[in-house]
Amino acid sequence: MTDTRRGLILINTGPGKGKTTAALGTALRAVGNGMRVLVLQFLKGSWHYGELDAVATFGQNFQMKQMGRGFVKVGGAETDPEDIRLVEAAWVEAREAIESGEWEMVVLDEINYAISYGMLDPAQVAEALRNKPEMVHVILTGRNAHPLLVELADTVTEMREVKHAYQKGILAQRGIEY
Ligand code: ATP
Ligand code: MG
After folding, report:
1. Model pTM?
2. What CATH code is carried by the domain that includes residue 156?
3. Is 57 inside any structural domain?
4. Number of domains in the chain
5. Ligand nearest to the CA of 143
6. Which of 71, 91, 95, 139 is placed for a possible disulfide with 107 were both Cys, Cβ 3.0 to 4.6 Å?
């Protein structure tokens, strides 16, 4: 065991609900400790999530940005070039944010989807994580986390679906899903 302070790589993955919300809970905890936290949301864009307004009340130390359009057509050849462009732009910003020293925690929300849809090269992400500044915490969310990233991460949690309201035909609820 070591009590040395260091930045960790965390992954929230798996089919159950709670990947993004657990990352936001961790972000809240970090902000409460006076840390500066940036949340970059890959793919998200069209829905208005309550957390955007909540985070805005925290000021400069807690920032959240939607980097996508909120819907993505899946499947290699069918992927809209505009979505790929947005993912690439999000990744450039993410890498710069991690390297900048400006943020003590960077959350890359839904980045695992961008990777598993073939829109972002996992080796590139792995390289940036390997070379990240020592003290920066990085959290990656989304199903199907790439094995390369799972291996690199310090803490990996797989959300298991026991059941979900959606299966009963209950649509997304304010305060729970958005
Ligand atoms: P949350 O943002 O609520 O923590 P998540 O990040 O784990 O969810 P995502 O894969 O990002 O899940 O999907 C986001 C949306 O899909 C949320 O509205 C969530 O409620 C819903 N969702 C997550 N898991 C399931 C599931 N197993 N069945 C149906 N809908 C789900
Ligand atoms: Mg999510």
Report:
1. 0.94
2. 3.40.50.300
3. yes
4. 1
5. 1
6. 139
Q: How many angstroms separate the alpha carbon of residue 109 from the centre of ligand 2?
A: 6
Give residue 2 CA to ligand 2 midpoint distance, Å. 32
Which ligand 1 atom is the nearest neighbour of the CA of 159?
7
Establish if 25 belongs to a structural domain: yes
b/e 25-64 (16+ beta carbons within 10 angstroms → b)? ebbbebbeeebbbbbbbbbbbeeebebbeebeeeeebbbb
Per-residue tens of pLDDT for the chain, all 178 residues: 777 889 999 999 999 999 999 999 999 999 999 999 999 999 988 888 999 999 999 999 999 999 999 877 665 567 889 999 999 999 999 999 999 999 999 999 999 999 999 999 999 999 999 999 999 999 999 999 999 999 999 999 999 999 999 999 999 999 999 9
Q: Are 11 and 153 in contact (CB under 8 A)?
A: yes
Q: Determine the structural domain holding residue 161 and report its residue range.
A: 14-168
- Ligand 1 binding residues, C-beta < 6 A: 15-21, 110, 141, 143, 159, 161, 164, 166, 172, 177
Please report whether residue 128 resides in a domain. Answer: yes
What is the whole-number distance in angstroms between the Cα of residue 110 and the centre of ligand 2?
6
